[in-house]
Amino acid sequence: MGIGTIPSGDYNSVLETDGNVILNGKLLMSPTMAGQGGIYCEYIYAEGEEIPGFIYANDLSGDVITGGTITAEERLEVNGELFAQAITVTLEDFPDYVFSSTYKLKSLPEIEEYIVKNGKLPNIPSEDEVKERGLNLGEMQSKLLEKIEEMTLHMIQMQKRIDELEAKHSEMK
């Protein structure tokens, strides 16, 4: 059965409602139908049933709650809050290179000089850069881990120096 089907492929206003649409089955859309305009609504809810394909929306301004998957091939934009139980970000580079013997760890005076000159940590975007381009969570997590690993190396160096000074102090007694 079709509602307002148009053989020419013009899908504008094929089915329009100002009320709720309740489906007790699956919502299936062909890629060509989805590409024509997608789903426009205030609220999409699918619980317990995995959505086999995708939800395509040119203008989705409400909540999307799904028990299945939503696939955005290029980009999914959310103008508001995004809640998830888990988000997995894949990265090509991870900062364990900090522990490599070839890594050049900046000294604390070098870092201080950089901060005074630039008003930020090395390899971390500035506030203006984040305001302009946003923040890539995967990249930022990687950069923050880099800083944690660098701080850990500095603390290890400091602890060795403290132990050395305490040993010298004990010898002087």
Question: Any descriptors?
Answer:
mainly alpha; single chain; two-stranded parallel sheet
Our estimate of the beta-strand percent is: under 5%
Order of helices and strands: HEEHHH
What structural category characterises the helix and strand content?
A: mainly alpha
What does the overall shape look like? elongated
Residue stretches low in confidence (pLDDT < 50, at least 5 long) are 31-38, 40-45, 48-61
Mean pLDDT, rounded to whole units? 75
Biggest sheet strand line-up? 1-2
Major sheet characteristics: 2 strands, parallel
Helical stretch tally: 4
Can you give the helix content as a percent range? 25-40%
Q: Which oligomerization state do the chains in this entry correspond to?
A: single chain
| Number of extended strands | 2
Number of domains: 2
Structural Rg: 27 Å
Kindly report how far apart the N and C termini lie: 96 Å
Question: How would you describe what is shown here?
Answer:
- By secondary structure, the chain is mainly alpha-helical.
- The chain folds into two domains: 1-87, no CATH class; 95-172, no CATH class.
- 34% of the residues lie in helices and 5% in strands.
- It has four helices and two strands.
- A two-stranded parallel sheet has the order 1-2.
Short summary of the structure?
The chain is mainly α and 173 residues long. Helix content is 34%, strand content 5%.
